[in-house]
From TrEMBL:
PROSITE patterns documented for this protein: SET
UniProt xrefs under Pfam families: SET (PF00856)
Domain of life where this protein originates: Eukaryota
Protein name from the UniProt record: SET domain-containing protein
Organism: Oidiodendron maius (strain Zn)
Matching Gene3D superfamilies: SET domain
Domain SET, first and last residues per copy: 38-177
């Protein structure tokens, strides 16, 4: 392979990742335009002190006020990453991160808040804490940045009316998904 062909492949793969990041998916939710930039006034990071809590001794994200079903809480901010465009087999620095969310599986684009991020990185999984999650991750579109992302929303009421909102002082909990826990049980992410 010539040097020109290799560079062309690198550029095409990088351009495909950038294009995917800058293309609005049909099913993405809009980040509300009035969402403040900077620290989120809807939440507080607090230490988890209950000895029965799986994250005891760490921190969690708690509602600073009552949040109604379907409320946008905040965007999940972190380092946007994609596979190495050269296809090299160098170790993936995000492979063992507990803060890495998939944004586009096909392109391999993720958001990792392990080294940098916002309050959303303190959201815990509901397992061992509550019967079910009270919030969820949804893909979002940032109209200002013209970029895809991930947001955290209070579970909606839904057809069954099960989304009750989040009360002030209550921990905001999501489902990390079976893939997250499956990888840890199989020892893939030691």
């Amino acid at each position: 392979m010539t040097k020109f062909m290799l560079i062309s492949r690198l550029i095409n793969k990088t351009n495909a990742s950038l294009s995917a990041l800058k293309s609005r998916p049909n099913d993405a939710y809009n980040i509300p335009l009035n969402s403040p930039k900077g620290p989120c006034s809807l939440v507080r990071i607090m230490p988890v002190t209950s000895p029965t809590h799986p994250a005891c001794g760490q921190s969690g994200l708690f509602a600073a006020r009552d949040l109604k079903p379907g409320t946008f809480i905040l965007q999940y901010i972190g380092e946007i990453h994609a596979p190495s465009p050269d296809g090299s087999l160098t170790p993936d620095p995000h492979a063992n991160s507990d803060y890495d969310l998939s944004l586009d599986r096909e392109q391999g684009i993720g958001i990792d808040a392990q080294r940098k991020g916002n309050e959303a990185r303190f959201i815990n999984d509901y397992r061992g804490i509550a019967e079910k999650p009270n919030a969820e991750f949804k893909e979002v579109w940032d109209e200002e940045q013209k970029e895809r992302g991930m947001g955290v929303w209070v579970l909606g009421e839904g057809k069954s009316g099960k989304g009750k909102g989040v009360k002030k002082g209550e921990e905001i909990l999501v489902s990390y998904g079976r893939g997250f826990w499956g990888a840890r049980k199989s020892g893939d992410l030691d």
